[in-house]
Design brief:
Aldehyde Oxidoreductase, domain 3, 19 helices, five-stranded mixed sheet, 3 domains, globular, binds cytidine-5'-diphosphate, single chain, Aldehyde Oxidoreductase, domain 4, 28% helix, disordered N terminus
């Protein structure tokens, strides 16, 4: 369904929901007038650089800072021993573990923070790092979870009292007994072992902080590349022992986050401690390599999956076991209850009664991982395993993969649908989305074309993925991060002249919140979008919220915005009644105006009403037109979609080219169709990167291969395929405007579609799996091995 102009409730001038309003924020971005962290320059500001470990695992025997301190322009050199004096050498992580701020006893990954130099300029700070001498005593490195869990593996976290192995957690979801029974009754069990490789969100702007602790007032103003400024303020208060009212976090414009800017990094803490002690502002900005080797990695799941199916092609049950490589510190940002994120959404778009998930997290000598890189916690990995298994199950049954999916999809009338691992899907129409995608490629003809091509020795492949995501954490009963319940907030103030300011607990990193959240207000109150300012990212001036990640802004912050706008409209109604000398019930509303029932010419605009709220309110009414709402969602939202990819594989080189990529997405009601398409295009590009070229690897000594954009590949316009986008619209029944999140859908859903297409092309060789990234040499080797069999 495409939104037609007639269905819009507001005019182009007002620009409410459904209008492709141009992004308000772009005016400053395209003029180079954004205000990013590195643009912050304060009087007397000092600069910090961090010395990082060159090795993955070693004891620190000594650190000699004398030469660095003697360099002119160096103000201080800080080590873990110095921080110990302030009880700051270790800090808590978002997942309840501890992480070294500056290493004291051992280094546990290559790139770990060992010392910091504070200097008058950034160049001197950087030069001084070379003058610090650290004596390391190397230890063997552990670089994957199976090695970590093996008998006799070196214990990485020997700082933890009584720790004798590298296990971080063991976690299960679903019903084991029921699932075992389903497997016992199955005609066929299809299995897959695969690795979802370690990757990095790699935002264009790296992480950084400018800490400004005023020695006279004790007020700490911390500019931070933070996706969650309020949560970070609370955690800063708890870690540093500063009174929370004296901490102000300001997240300026952010050049991409994708989950990378959710954790608290040691650099933030050291810069703040340095400013506190020295009494001057301290700036720290990571280099590209620092960002790529030490901050917030994602994925790195070794997965075993099994589907139990009947000979008629019905899924009966699913089993997965995964081994998660957590790195040296368990610093995931994910709800406390769910150790493997929301991986247990792995039953996907299908209706079957039994599933069981087992997850084991392990410490390794790698940087901390597990951030929700453009996905709702671990939903990307979940979507990948089920969609790869579904494709392979269809092949083993001799069924068409599209038909297999259609047969097993949850049917529209089954919503709200209770999944076997405990989710309640809000709404969906999976058959229509897949049919639309199949129609777009003319599936029956495409199958014939594929057969013809095979006869000519050409390897065309068709890959399908029909994903279901879960986004919009909480509700607060089930979802918290570091104990902070997951809700979000909106504060709306309408000024006397009818212009409005909306303040939010979420924080955009480029998603266009200044435009879309203004559109929600415009839709509810009829105030033109151009008259609404949206403010985010300043903890002194916005209401408390858990921040922006896991596509939660629209489901939670967007809902809070709609609710507060509706509450103000009710007060506006009472004011309008006063102005029109009528009773509330006698008034009708049209966007931007109240009028008397049956006499549409007798009315007042929202602007008239706003003026009256400050100049002419009825006796007994509180002046003003403003309010704040904290929204605790009743459920998550479940966006979905179907992607169909057509590829051609060159068997001589292993290179594969995408011929077509059709993406039918359903994120419920679209606030701004242009922005939604932008989000999907970006997500499909990142999904393609995962499938085609992108990963971060480590050698056996724990050296990170992928510390720059020559090794860690980001697709440019040259490599990126052309995407053909379409939509269905299935509103979320519990969201005030029917919207679901969208930012991450395409990254979650698309990798399996690309890989399924390559595997489909290689069916004549009997190849059933190639791990991501599906690099040409992997394809080539798989073909050669198959031919040798
Ligand atoms: O939390 P995050 O902003 O990353 O993700 P999101 O809530 O999925 O929103 C991404 C962007 O798309 C925001 O500007 C949203 O307001 C917009 N959007 C939309 O216009 N309509 C939707 N149904 C969902 C998101």
């Amino acid at each position: 369904m495409t939104t037609t102009h007639d269905q819009l409730s507001t005019s182009v001038e007002v620009g409410g929901i459904g209008h492709s309003v141009r992004r308000a924020e772009d005016a400053r971005f395209i003029q180079g007038a954004g205000n990013y962290l590195d643009d912050v320059k304060l009087p007397g500001m000092l600069h910090m650089a961090i010395l990082r470990s060159p090795v993955a695992h070693a004891k620190i025997l000594s650190i000699d800072t004398a030469d660095a301190l003697a360099l002119p322009g160096v103000v201080a050199v800080i080590t873990g021993a110095d921080l110990e004096g302030y009880n700051l050498a270790w800090m808590p992580t978002l997942s309840g573990d501890t992480q070294a701020v500056l290493a004291t006893d051992k280094v546990r990954f290559q790139g770990q923070e060992v010392a910091a130099v504070i200097a008058e300029d950034p160049y001197t700070a950087e030069d001084a790092l070379a003058l610090i001498f650290v004596d390391y005593d190397d230890l063997p490195a552990v670089t994957n979870p199976r090695q970590a869990m093996a008998e006799g593996a070196p214990v990485i976290r020997d700082d933890k009292e009584g720790k004798t192995d590298n296990s971080v957690y063991h976690w299960e979801a679903g019903d084991k007994e029921l699932t075992d029974r389903a497997f016992a009754e199955a005609d066929l069990v299809v299995s897959l072992d695969t690795h979802y490789p370690r990757s990095h969100p790699a935002p264009l702007e790296t992480c950084g902080a400018v800490a400004d602790v005023n020695p006279a007032t004790g007020k700490a103003t911390i500019y931070l590349t933070s996706q969650a400024p309020h949560a970070h303020r609370t955690l800063f208060a708890l870690v540093a022992g500063l009174p929370e009212q004296n901490i102000r976090i300001i997240s300026p414009d952010i050049g991409g986050g994708f989950g990378n800017k959710v954790p608290i990094y040691p650099g933030y803490v050291v810069a703040t401690a340095a400013s506190l002690v020295i009494g001057k502002p301290v700036k720290w900005v990571e280099t590209r390599t620092e960002n790529l080797i030490s901050t917030g990695f994602a994925r790195d799941y070794h997965m075993h999956g099994e589907l139990a199916v009947s000979k008629e092609g019905r899924i009966l049950g699913m089993r997965t076991h995964l081994w998660s490589d957590q790195g040296a510190f368990y610093a995931d940002a994910q709800p406390t209850k769910f150790r493997a994120g929301l991986f247990h959404i792995c039953t996907g778009s299908y209706d079957f009664p039994a599933a069981h998930v087992v997850a084991d997290g392990a410490y390794t000598n790698k940087a901390p991982g597990g951030v929700a890189y453009r996905c709702s916690f671990r939903v990307t990995e979940a979507s990948y395993i089920i969609e790869r298994l579904a494709q392979n199950a269809a092949y083993e049954l001799g069924m068409d993969p599209a038909e297999f999916r259609m047969k097993n999809f949850i049917r529209p009338e089954q919503f709200p649908y209770h999944s076997p691992t405990g989710f309640v899907y809000d709404s969906g129409d999976y058959h229509t989305a897949l049919q639309k995608a199949l129609d777009a490629v003319d599936y029956p003809n495409l199958l014939k074309e594929q057969e013809e091509a095979r006869k000519q020795g050409r390897y065309l492949g068709i890959g399908i993925a029909s994903f279901t995501e879960v986004v919009g954490a909480g509700n607060s009963r089930d979802y918290d991060i570091a104990g902070l319940k997951m809700f979000d907030s909106a504060e709306l103030r309408i000024h006397p002249t009818g212009k409005a300011i909306l303040k939010l607990g979420v924080k955009s990193q480029g998603q266009g919140h200044e435009t879309t959240f203004a559109q929600i207000v415009a839709n509810e109150l009829g105030i033109p979008v151009t008259d609404i300012a949206v403010i985010e990212g300043d903890t002194d001036n916005t209401p408390y919220g858990l921040g922006t990640y896991a596509s939660r802004s629209t489901p939670v912050g967007g809902a809070a915005t709609a609710v507060i706008a509706r509450q103000l409209r009710e007060k506006a109604r009472r004011l309008a009644a006063h102005l029109l000398e009528a009773s509330d019930e006698d008034l009708e509303w049209e966007p931007g105006r109240f009028y008397i029932k049956g006499a549409p010419e007798k009315g007042v605009t929202i602007q008239d009403v706003a003026f009256a709220a400050y100049t002419n309110m009825p006796d007994g009414m509180e002046p003003g037109l403003e309010g704040v709402h904290y929204y605790d969602p009743p459920n998550m939202t479940y966006p979905f979609g179907s992607y169909v990819v057509v590829v051609e594989v060159d068997p001589e080189t292993g290179v594969w080219e995408v011929e077509r990529m059709i993406a039918v997405d359903d994120c419920g009601v679209r606030i701004n169709p242009m922005i939604v398409e932008g989000q999907i295009t970006g997500g499909l590009t990142e999904g393609f990167a995962k499938a085609n070229m992108q990963w971060i690897t480590f050698d056996n000594d724990g050296n990170c291969i992928g510390s720059n954009f020559m090794d860690y590949l980001i697709p440019t316009a040259w490599e990126t395929p052309r995407f053909e986008l379409d939509e269905t619209v299935t509103p979320s029944p519990h969201h005030p405007i029917g919207a679901k999140g969208v930012g991450e859908s395409a990254t979650v859903g698309s990798p399996a579609a690309y890989v399924n297409a390559v595997i489909d092309a290689l069916r004549p060789f009997g190849i059933t799996n190639i791990d991501m990234p599906v690099l040409p040499h992997r394809v080539w080797s798989a073909i050669r091995e198959a031919q040798a069999r």
